[in-house]
Amino acid sequence: MKINENFQKLPAGYLFSEISRRVAEFRTNHPEVKLIHMGIGDVTLPLPNAVIEAMSKAVLDMADAQTFHGYGPEQGYASLRDLIAENDYKARGVDITPDEIFISDGAKSDCANLGDLFDVDNIVAVCDPVYPVYVDSNVMAGRGGELDETGKWSNILYLNCSADNGFVPAIPESKADLIYLCFPNNPTGVVASRDQLKAWVDYALSNQAVILFDSAYEAFITDESIPHSIYEIEGAKECAIEIRSFSKTAGFTGMRCGYTVVPKALKRGGASLRDMWNRRQSTKFNGASYIIQCGAAAVYSDSGKREVRENIDYYMNNAKIIASALKAAGISFFGGENAPYIWFKAPNEADSWALFDRLLNEANVITTPGAGFGPCGEGYIRLTAFGNATETAEAVKRIVSLIQ
Amino acid sequence: MKINENFQKLPAGYLFSEISRRVAEFRTNHPEVKLIHMGIGDVTLPLPNAVIEAMSKAVLDMADAQTFHGYGPEQGYASLRDLIAENDYKARGVDITPDEIFISDGAKSDCANLGDLFDVDNIVAVCDPVYPVYVDSNVMAGRGGELDETGKWSNILYLNCSADNGFVPAIPESKADLIYLCFPNNPTGVVASRDQLKAWVDYALSNQAVILFDSAYEAFITDESIPHSIYEIEGAKECAIEIRSFSKTAGFTGMRCGYTVVPKALKRGGASLRDMWNRRQSTKFNGASYIIQCGAAAVYSDSGKREVRENIDYYMNNAKIIASALKAAGISFFGGENAPYIWFKAPNEADSWALFDRLLNEANVITTPGAGFGPCGEGYIRLTAFGNATETAEAVKRIVSLIQ
């Protein structure tokens, strides 16, 4: 019996469990202090009424043999796939057919499970800083190599992001096979322009690479020139898989629903990646919940769209509050304009965790240390716009007065 | 870019898609004929009221910021894990702690994803006939080897089941590392006695193997001497992972909820498999839906338990109807006593698919051909007890008159 030894290579501590530990310690020592949460990327507004009504009805469907729903299609209900094709793609001039769309229990599962389609012997490229799931799931699959003292894996190609390149990485000079891109970006909140995405598509096409494009935050884009989907770029259907989520768009973090698009035009090694993903999902997944899919379908109703827009506007107003306060204080930052994340560096503190601790202990605000997303995040802090507006204003006031 | 070539080894046709194709063809040619479905393993009774009420409330929780639930624990809510530990284990004298229980979106996902914990270089043992997911997920991971003309994979150890051993396989003479066992069994409906399970636990302990025990059908056991959990066997915590489902127990096929138990005592290669599964689920999964988990918790309420029992009794009454009719006709069969499946061979037909076609075309009953579950299933047919009682009686009458 041999276990998968790659698991043993992963460092024990997770970013968010370390944050929880420090917060719990603070709370034990200072039970009287009310902390403001600006760290976790979870939504706080309740679900849209349209979603609630659709799910209430779906629950009752399950109470009657005539309307009961047992096993659904592993790919998701056709009605929901049709709505996605129509609203998320056709409405933006992109032709994606429903049978290229796979509904799942969330973008995190899809991001991680997509690795099943690829050989262990591929070069993975990720941005630094990056959403840890891309890296950790590949390390588990044996694509990491060894961890060095700077926190980088020997077989992973890191696309360095910094203030110099506006946290949008340059096209690498060496060859990568699997490229994870996330725009609008978590954690930095930056977006990629059409030209920047075009350069990545061209690179992938000429290297026979596959882009795994995470567009979980596309609903937060306000600048009309920024693509919402990689498929707005010519040639992307021949080289990209797109992963989307209802979590941040419609407040579905506790509901569990997302989807992945694998175009039929995407072929590698003579095989259709769409057919491979279909086989993977049919074998290792049993469809998303009927009730949750009914809720997701309601996101595309007229009232659903209006309510979702209102919630996103609320969060983006928080982002504006944060951005304005930082700007007024002369603190430079990234994001916040087309994403619910703001990424900034304190003028007088080069260590993310030290800054995290000062913000926790002295400003009583919980944030996320940028170093937790990769070595290039060192010195930075991620703030999220998913909180309450009044608390957000108070928190950013305290942050500014502490670090200015 | 190298794709995972193991996918290309899998035969294109699935059992259930081939059945659907033949049924669709029949329906096109005979639109006037009403078919009775005795094939698919899906439930038909609506959800218990206790579950409906709990989910209706949970949906409303999501409509109010005060009771809204965002991201939940990847391992599932502690309240549900406590109920499982108490009701499914402690009540049967088994000490499983809540932190050894991992809630998921279903047993199919867990069965397939558990492979992540093990090296590609392990000998997998499966019963023949078998639930195809065990085999296909291992083939995808590279543990299959090559497919031979009899439908067997060169690197998989098949535990042959037949009428001679009552479809409970003998302990193998060679060494296996990962052993998939499912009792009550899908597709044969047979159960394993305490002594039979003890022999497997002893084998696993002495070979340092791991048993993946699928007890999705434990709620259908009527014989009090039959173990519901592998952990009722001494030593099992050091060698077994148990996978369970709310699907068949409580009608959750369209809901998506199951759980997996990985005891802390289970260690291999110096590592805790519980900690590895925790890391896998934390990295590649984001928890089951809050609403669905609230529904699952209601299964353990007094009224939930009563209603679940009534539904299971209804299905088991169908099993009795089938069993009595076959017995009266002198047709021998397996299962139906402690499982919702009946497994029989026609006296005058040695080919599963030919028998399937005759039952479809002449008796107008949809069944499942045993050969679809593996070479040892050849000649057999699986009937399920999940239908309507009147239709079930009519279907089995037609089957008997056709094959007798």
Structure keywords:
homodimer; about 400 residues; alpha/beta; Aspartate Aminotransferase, domain 1; Aspartate Aminotransferase, domain 2; 2 domains; seven-stranded mixed β-sheet; four-stranded antiparallel β-sheet; 13 helices; globular; PyrdxlP-dep_Trfase_major (chains A, B); aminotransferase (chains A, B); L,L-diaminopimelate aminotransferase activity (chains A, B); Aminotransferase_I/II_large (chains A, B)
Structure description:
The structure is a homodimer of 404-residue chains. Chain A has 404 residues and is an alpha/beta fold. Chain A has two domains: 6-46 and 303-403, Aspartate Aminotransferase, domain 1; 52-301, Type I PLP-dependent aspartate aminotransferase-like (Major domain) (Aspartate Aminotransferase, domain 2). The first copy, chain A, contains 13 helices and 15 strands. Chain A has helices spanning 6-9, 15-29, 49-61, 78-89, 107-113, 132-140, 194-207, 247-250, 273-284, 290-298, 302-328, 352-363, 389-403; strands at residues 36-37, 101-104, 124-128, 156-160, 178-182, 210-214, 240-245, 258-261, 267-268, 271-272, 333-335, 341-345, 365-366, 368-369, 380-384. Chain A has a seven-stranded mixed beta sheet, with helices on both faces. In chain A, helix 6 links the parallel strand 3 (124-128) and strand 4 (156-160). In chain A, helix 11 (302-328) runs parallel beside helix 13 (389-403). The N and C termini of chain A lie far apart (57 Å). Chains A and B meet through helix 3, helix 5, helix 6, helix 9 and helix 10 of A and helix 3, helix 5, helix 6, helix 9 and helix 10 of B. Chains A, B: GO terms for molecular function: L,L-diaminopimelate aminotransferase activity. Chains A, B: It catalyses: (2S,6S)-2,6-diaminopimelate + 2-oxoglutarate = (S)-2,3,4,5-tetrahydrodipicolinate + L-glutamate + H2O + H(+). Chains A, B: It comes from Acetobacterium fimetarium. Chains A, B: InterPro entries: Aminotransferase_I/II_large (IPR004839), DapL/ALD1 (IPR019942), PyrdxlP-dep_Trfase (IPR015424), PyrdxlP-dep_Trfase_major (IPR015421), PyrdxlP-dep_Trfase_small (IPR015422). Chains A, B: The modification N6-(pyridoxal phosphate)lysine is found at residue 248.
